[in-house]
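The following record pairs a protein chain with its ligand, zinc ion.
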Amino acid sequence: MQKYNKFLMMALDLSKNHSYDYGLEYHLCSIVCKGGSVISVGFNHRATCQAVEMWADKVKKYRSWCMSTHSEMDAILRARKKTDLTNCTIYTIRRRYDGGENAMGISKPCLICQRTLADYSFSSAYWSLDSEHFAISRINKKTGELTDKVIRCHNHPDF
Ligand SMILES: [Zn+2]
């Protein structure tokens, strides 16, 4: 199995077993990897904190998008004081409700998460497009912009 498939499938499994805040519209899970090992796992939740508010303020014109803690932010918050996140990779999936528990939807990092990933010098982000496709984004550490490439997933449990 490709390494990225392994971590994306791991995120899918973790998401299925996680108790999310009640009524959340989306269920996401992010895994941060360093040198092939998982160093942090994050889930989206309702409450924010000072760091999340500060990250959102940096990308002010999109402020209304960020009234919760995104799974990428949660994973970074859990890891950032313990380890240097330079050149880490983040894997994110979003589960859809309308296609069975293994169905996935787009989980491209939002502009605030893109900026935060760049600030912590992440090298790349993998994210789900749908149940059959992922994308890998290379992160421009200066601008925070992503360059995306679509990859087909061969190891989804439904295939
Ligand atoms: Zn985000």
